[in-house]
Structure formats: C-alpha cells, structure tokens
Fold each of these.
Amino acid sequence: VAEADDAERERRRHQMHEPYRTILGHFRHEIGHYYWDRLIKDSEWIDAFRGLFGDEREDYDQAIKRHHEQGAPADWPASFVSAYASSHPWEDWAESWAHYLHIVDNLETAVECGLSLRPRRKGEPAMKPDIALDGQRTTSFDQIISRWFPLTYVLNNLNRGMGLPDAYPFVLSTPALDKLRFIHEVVGAAASRVPTGEASELARPTKG
C-alpha cells in the first residue's frame, strides 16, 4: 500500500539511491516472485537458474538484512540490473523479471503505434539507420534487444526535452542480459506448452 503513495515511494527511492521506482515497476517485481514459484521452483530450469542468478537456498532474511546494513557491492552494475538485485537470487530474478516486462511492453506499444526510427544523423552512434519497429513481432531475444536500445535513446531524449528524468536510466551488462535472455526462454517455453485458449491457467493462483 505504501508504494501507492507518491511521497512515500519517492522517499524510499532516494533512501535506496534508486534511479527508477514506480508503482508499475513494483507490481512487476512482485509478480516476478509469483512466477518464480510457477516456472522455476522444482522445475527443469532450476540448475540453469542457479548458474545465472545464484543459489536461492541462501538464507533470505540474512541476505536482505546484510543488504540493508552494508548496501550493494561497489561493482554491482557489472552483474545486475539494479543494486537491490544483488541482495539475493530471488530478488535478482524479480528485478530482472520486472525489467524484462518493461522492455517487451514498451516495444509492443511501439509496434502497435507503427513506430519506426529513421535518424537524420546517420552517424549517430546510439542509433542504427532505419530501425523498423512497426514490422512483425519477434520472438528472438537478440532482435528484441537490438530494437530496444535505440528506442531507449529516443525515450530518454524526449524526456530530457521536457525536463524530466530519463525514462530508461539503466545500462545492461552482459551478465544482466544473459539473465534477461534466460527469462525470455523460460517464458517462451511456458507459453508453447499452454494450449490455445488456456493461457490464463498459467496465471491463475494456486490454492492454499
């Protein structure tokens, strides 16, 4: 409930030195915990998960306590999407999951709006010429990322033109991208197993 209060959420953002904190991001993070139980726990993915995110059997309460007392490692950007992601493998998954949803949701919006990026300055290093976002949706993670980075350049510059913070204040390291790729593969595999018309079953809470 506190996250829905703008003043309290902003206070927490400053307290935790976060560049981004929104109610939507909070929802996506918490949904990530739910889907870890549905998609990863006791599944064929667990070993690959531990190889990328770490062993979730580490004491969670102690890990969170240590994070709040000592903060994130100084080199956290080299491996994680956020400082909080470094606290425990479960939080790394949830932060990465939220990040993945940010990416695919914004790209889907761009596609539905028929957006294409055709920079007039062909030598702009952050932009590739004639990036078509209005074509067919792609299931390739590499294509998703190749479309996403130029779009963030535009989003950030539009915000700066309005005197607002960057819409996407993140830099993704190779390990962080590997985690997003893993999530993409897990989601794709789960979706392929769900019969047409029964996709809602995957999102239905279990009893108990």
Amino acid sequence: MDRTEALARLEPNLVDQFLQAASKSDVLRHTLESLVVDPVTADPVTDYITDLDERCQLFRELQQMNFLRVAAICGAAEAADEDYEEPDDSDEEVP
C-alpha cells in the first residue's frame, strides 16, 4: 500500500463522528450522505468521488473537521461527475 492509499483509509469511528457533527447542517448532510466506510475493509467508498487524490484530500479535511472545504471538494467532484457524458458508440445506421 502506498502513501496515497494509506491516506485514503480512515477509522470508521472518525467518519461516524464527522457525520454526527455534519448532521447539524442540512447541506453537509445531503452532500456527505454518499460517504460510506466498508465495515470489513474500512475502505472509503463514495458515490461520485472516484479520483484517489480527491478522496485522500476529502479524508484529510474530514480529519481536520474542515466542513467548508469538505463541502467544496464534494461539490466540485459532484459537478464534474454531472458534466461527464458517455461516449456515443452508435456509429451503426439503423435501417
């Protein structure tokens, strides 16, 4: 496991504490609802943050309880995911 992968791992308890604190903010709660920690591997899993560097940055911010930065990172990743369009492979003509 390299340093980047190590940064992406968190104690599930820390994530739970953050989510409890974030529950006081509707925006953060909605933004972070997709944050899940696999109970077996403790690997972080998210709906739309798939880039490992973004994920590591998110968890560094989680550890520092920096709510505004976490919301900004989640929002930027979500916007990038929404802008992505699947390539159109339908080059075949339909008779």
Amino acid sequence: MIIRKCIPVHIKIIYDGLTFALRQHMSSADLPTPRTVRDAASEAPLTQEDYQRLAYFRHHIRKFLVFSETAARAAGLTPRQHQALLAIYGTRDSSAPTIGELSQKLLIRHHSAVGLTDRLVSAGFIRRVNSPRDQREVMLRLTPKAKRVLFHLSKRHRSELNRIAPVLRAILSQLEGRTHRTRQNRSTRPPKRPLH
C-alpha cells in the first residue's frame, strides 16, 4: 500500500491496526485493496446513506484515536512516543530500524525523528546501537522498560480493536456491498448507443 506523506501518521497506524483486526475476522479476499477501493469510488454514486456510514466510520476511528492517545498518556508516553516504540518493535524482519527508517514509518521528517529518538533515549525507552553490518549505521532498540510499557499498551489496543472491529467491518461491508450492487447493475444494463 502506498500512503502519501501528507496523511497523518495516526491515520496510517489506525489503518494498519484496523487491517490487522479485520484480518482476524475475515479472510484477506474479503478485505478491500487500495485498487478496488479506488475503482469502487469512481463507479458508485454517493447516497445520503453512504455519507452517514462514512461519518459513522470516521467517528469510530476518532474514538479509537482518543482511546489510543489517552492510553499512551496514562502510560507516561506521548502518542508519538507510543507510535515510535510500536514502529521500532514492530519492524517486520526483527532487525532494529535506523532513525531514517523510523521517520519513514512515522511519516515525519528526519530531524523530527532525531528529536523523538533523543527524548526516548533520555527517558530510558530506547537505546542506540551500531549496526553489525556497518558500524557507521545507528539502529534503535527498545529497552526492557519500553517492552513492558509497549506490551501493556498493545494488549489494550488489540482488545479495543477487537471490540470495535465488528462495527467497522459492518460499515465497510455495507459500503462495499453497495458498490458491488452498483457494479452488477451497470454490467446488466445494455450498452449505450453512440449518438450519430
């Protein structure tokens, strides 16, 4: 999936989290891909019901964001620090990311990632280590303290995502079902005759 840099990091993290939660309840064939979403958006006219569903969906995303921000602050972190710890620990290949990779994951500028890293090091949440493959490259690793905090936060977030997943899945299914019906209606119509 390609996400433009202008999209706030919390939206990408929510998208990733929602995708994970939805995958727990649906097969990957049931999940919309960016391509099908784009195609569907160009095909189906929006109804008042669509606007209501989109508003309801956005409301639930915002509620999740407030939940996430509140949980992070209760754990002694800013929301961005929590996102950074999750991005560092959630690196796919289990290697520690560099500051540049962290800035890409959080969709922030490199100098902002440096400042964020400095604050997390000062607070005892992460440490900088030299890369075994290139001593000039600095990698970021969580401390045991950070792992404990992240574990508790992640459990709460997973629980909340599992709680709201049925609602979000229903909204997405309704929107996708309407788009599917629109496509079917278009495919059963006779082709328009060209005007001569």
